[in-house]
Amino acid sequence: MSEPIRVLVVDDEVDYLNSLKRVLARRGFDVQTVTDGRSALAVLAEAQFDCVLLDLQMPGMDGLATLAELRKQDQLTPVLLLTGRGDIPSVLSALKGGSEGFLAKPCPVEELVSAIEDASERKALARAWGGNGKEH
After folding, report:
1. CATH number assigned to the domain comprising residue 29
2. For residue 134, is it within any domain?
3. From the centroid of its chain, how far is CA 38?
4. Angle at 56 between CA 94 and CA 59, to 5 degrees
5. Distance CA 77, CA 129 (A)
6. Which domain holds residue 77?
7. Which of 5, 41, 54, 128 has the fewest CB atoms within 10 Å around its CB?
8. Torsion angles phi and psi, residue 109, rounded to 5
9. What is the number of structural domains in the chain?
10. Mean of the pLDDT values across residues 117-132?
């Protein structure tokens, strides 16, 4: 039996965060949640995840700033940005900044699950080909 996909969900909307955690856990994912970018970076410095779901708009350190800091320490872990208020410049910045993709909230569950599984598979393939994702 394979290990469950480990997902870190970062969102300042606590009700949405808890709901998403329940939905993903029922689908067999190992889910950890945090409510801000700084907490996400601290967790990512201590633990490995197969995918990060990152809210774009958060107070303090927003999703783009969090993504930029995350990429300084880890090039390999896929990041999927989530937002209820996305715009074209934000999407382009996220993709240029190293995001695997951009999903609108609320995202249909099947689309979200598929995006997480695809991102996790890409990470596994990159690791198998010798990538460790750490900045040199």
Report:
1. 3.40.50.2300
2. no
3. 14
4. 135
5. 14
6. 6-128
7. 128
8. -55, -45
9. 1
10. 83
